[in-house]
Amino acid sequence: MPDAPDRTEGDGPYDQLIIRGVTMIDGTGSPAVGPVDIVIEGNVITRIQNVGYPGVPINENRRPQLAENGYELDAGGMYILPGFFDMHAHTGGNAQGTVPEYVYKLWLAHGITSIREPGSFNSLNWTLRHKERSENNEITAPRIFSYVGFGQGHEGPIITPQQARNWVQTIHEQGADGIKFFGARPEIWEAALDEANSLGVGSMAHHAQPRVVYANVSHTSELGLRGMTHWYGLPEALFTDRVIQNYPLDYNYSDEQHRFEEAGKLWKQAAEPGSDKWNEVMNRLLELDFEINPTFTIYEASRDLMRERRAEWHERYTLPSLWQFFQPDRRAHGSYWFDWGTEQEIAWKENYRIWMQFVNDYKNRGGRVTVGSDAGYIFKLYGFAYIREMELLREAGFHPLEIFQSASLKAAEVLGVDHQLGTIEEGKLADLVIVGENPQVNLQVLYGTGAIRVNENNEAVRVGGVKYTIKDGIIFDAKQLLRDVEEMVQQVKDETGFEITQPGLDY
Length: 507
Ligand SMILES: [Zn+2]
Description:
The chain is built from 16 helices and 18 strands. It is α/β, with parallel strands linked by helices.
């Protein structure tokens, strides 16, 4: 994986930047308020000033004064939100054929100013180097929080509790923010989590099915795990009439169609919503202040493959190598389209219905839910997939304000940076998203491709798309970042003659 190039994009930070006349959704969960003027000095929000009332001219006397070397951004009629955190965000690599610049620009173009890298598969050193370069604003990229794959960099497998402790100490000294687990023997889990928690190292798990019988979410959370990503391990914790998923007798985990098709029947095997077992498991996770990072979006092709294959952004923004990675292939992870049809999709729709109910209940009872995409697999494109995750949280029952709170404040809390990030408040860092439309009314205005509307001349037009993403006081033109990505894609197409086609169809 090459390194990201030095930054040439973005303006600022400024001694003084004033964002004028904007309507603010501050990320705390408070309703929108505006118009306000927001003063930023360097990378810090220093003043938020109410300057009037909706529908009447702004009271000029109430406006903060522009300093001699200050810069004004007119955001009248626009909305501002705290920068988004993609809490499950891979930079991609050889399999996807992506370069970091491509991925970073797609993220920033969708308002994502921070990411959690679960696994940091391009090596911990690579990830930490980019984390530091992003912190210093040497590259055009979101802030990076590195959750390194458990055992990564260890010579041979970790087989003793002491090795687990030593490994956790090593990655902590190197600067990792946390660990991503896929599963382990209980005594290894216990030692690693105990060490991580005593050092303040974060933890999350994708409870991979081959290891979930050893330890499901109820076990690992008791051992000190701080959060889960995806959903595996949760229905297993809710089993009452079995201990192991009802695998067909010819099941093979290495067959991706088996893996994903049977997963689609998993929630049906769990305790019913609202049952004693359902409440018992949920209440204990709430007591432990356990993070749930559902990544609904990454499984969406399971319930509607055509929607994902035909998503309109693929034409302009999906790199040919990434498109090829998504195609049916028995050897590629998440490319399980060997024989996928109505029955599989209907089962998955039911699976979603129950899963969404759990996540929404969890949020309603005070649980911490974060927003993540896992893009770069299963027809999901960086940035776009994150906005889609917001739509799926809406489908699950979240109010848009609850979604934005999950996208910013809840994530900042999990990462231990809520004193600096996660809301628009005086004293916090200037990580911000500006969009020309009210995103509560239609989350689709946050997509780089915008939302469709018919104008007064009866013509279909696009509205929205993030206008500016501000990271650490630096203003990025989100539309320009998208044009850069489009150019990268077009260049490869020009060189190779590549065209997007659908699987198995001859054009
Ligand atoms: Zn992932």
